């Protein structure tokens, strides 16, 4: 006869062997896909968001489903600083942080991309990101347990606030949200503003509640975060660049089977072409959409105003030479064809 204790023991034994059987029957251990968690902080409908989704599509196709890419947009999993820690700890495998966010890891050289007016446009930027300087920057990530895979474009930044920003004087005393880059801090200080480092996911609310007065971002980020709804003025200053390095946890990457890694590299090359092919147009479309929304007045700088911005901001290159490296700044200036 079964007493209650025997019954429970028997039930536990049956349930154990059923799970063992199910595991063996499905061949679970062998057939489970390799999962790559790709976390990012922007909306899916941005150059980075679309690049991540394209990589997912291609990576899953080229590995015949052997790899599953889980994309987590909009800081769903982690905010700016935490996502880099999560990558190093292996809690996520892939990210594409903005180049302005590598300084706190000790990779100050990446801040060269933040220097005001260092690129005259996408062509001059690509000479750096697709050239030897770009490669040597990605190589530096290895010392932090990170493998750099590619540079993805976003675009050139505009400045926004609730008051017009025509000349540097207009910035005096304004609290401006920045990413965690010392170059951006120096840039805002050079304009007489008060820089405030803040995670991207917090910017909309900070603008809405007046915790900060204004910010800078490419139109695609401004639009998809609805910042235009809480910023009355914006200046099409294109004073600096914002783009990304796509990175993976190095140990995870190195331990992948070589054929899988090869297929993922192929997917990344094509996703990079795609992302960098759409970035300019995505930003143009976002700007048009914000103009159509009519909540923000957009200002184009006159030649005199632009000269005043140059005068205020170009000294940041020299000021940051000790931090970033004078040689690197010169190299980028020469490769980008902008000699300041
Ligand atoms: C920001 O924090 O403003 C941007 O880096 C967000 C992003 O990833 O584009």
Bin the strand percentage.
15-25%
Which class do the helix and strand fractions yield?
alpha/beta
Instruction: Tell me the series of helices and strands, N- to C-terminal.
Output: HHEHEHEHHEEEHEHEHEEHHEHHHH
Radius of gyration: 24 Å
Give the total of beta strands. Answer: 11
The count of helical stretches stands at: 15
The CATH topology of the largest domain is D-Maltodextrin-Binding Protein, domain 2
Low-confidence stretches: 1-29
Helix percentage: 40-55%
Give the number of domains: 2
Q: In CATH's first tier, which class of the largest domain applies?
A: Alpha Beta
The set of bound ligands, ions and cofactors reads:
(2S)-2-hydroxybutanedioic acid
The neighbouring-strand order within the major sheet is 7-6-8-5-9-11
CATH superfamily of the largest domain: Bacterial extracellular solute-binding protein, family 7
Name the shape in a single word.
globular
Distance between the termini: 92 Å
Largest sheet: 6 strands, mixed
């Amino acid at each position: 006869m079964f007493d209650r204790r025997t019954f429970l023991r028997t039930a536990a034994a049956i349930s154990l062997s059923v799970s063992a059987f199910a595991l063996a029957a499905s061949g679970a251990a062998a057939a489970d896909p390799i999962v790559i968690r790709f976390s990012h902080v922007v909306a899916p409908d941005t150059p980075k968001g679309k690049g991540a989704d394209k990589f997912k599509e291609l990576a899953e196709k080229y590995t015949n489903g052997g790899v599953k890419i889980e994309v987590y947009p909009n800081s769903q999993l982690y905010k700016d600083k935490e996502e880099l820690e999560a990558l190093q700890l292996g809690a996520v495998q892939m990210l594409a942080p903005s180049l302005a966010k590598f300084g706190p890891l000790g990779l100050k050289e990446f801040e060269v991309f933040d220097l005001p007016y260092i690129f005259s446009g996408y062509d001059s930027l690509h000479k750096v990101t697709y050239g030897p300087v770009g490669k040597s920057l990605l190589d530096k990530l290895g010392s932090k347990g990170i493998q750099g895979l590619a540079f993805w474009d976003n675009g050139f930044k505009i400045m926004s606030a609730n008051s017009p920003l025509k000349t540097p004087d207009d910035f005096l005393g304004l609290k401006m949200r920045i990413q965690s880059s010392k170059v951006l801090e120096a840039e805002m200080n050079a304009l007489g503003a008060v820089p405030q480092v803040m995670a991207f996911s917090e910017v909309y609310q900070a603008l809405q509640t007046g915790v900060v007065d204004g910010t800078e971002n490419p139109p695609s980020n401004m639009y998809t975060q609805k910042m235009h709804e809480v910023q009355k003025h914006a200046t099409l200053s294109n004073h600096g660049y914002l783009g990304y390095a796509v990175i993976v946890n190095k140990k995870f990457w190195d331990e992948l089977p070589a054929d899988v890694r090869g297929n993922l590299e192929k997917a990344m090359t094509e996703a990079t072409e795609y992302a960098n092919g759409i970035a300019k147009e995505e930003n143009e479309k976002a700007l048009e959409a914000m103009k159509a929304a009519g909540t923000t007045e957009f200002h184009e700088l006159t030649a005199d105003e632009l000269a005043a911005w140059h005068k205020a901001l170009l000294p940041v290159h020299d000021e940051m030479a000790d931090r970033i490296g004078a040689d690197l700044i010169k190299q980028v200036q020469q490769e980008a064809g902008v000699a300041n």
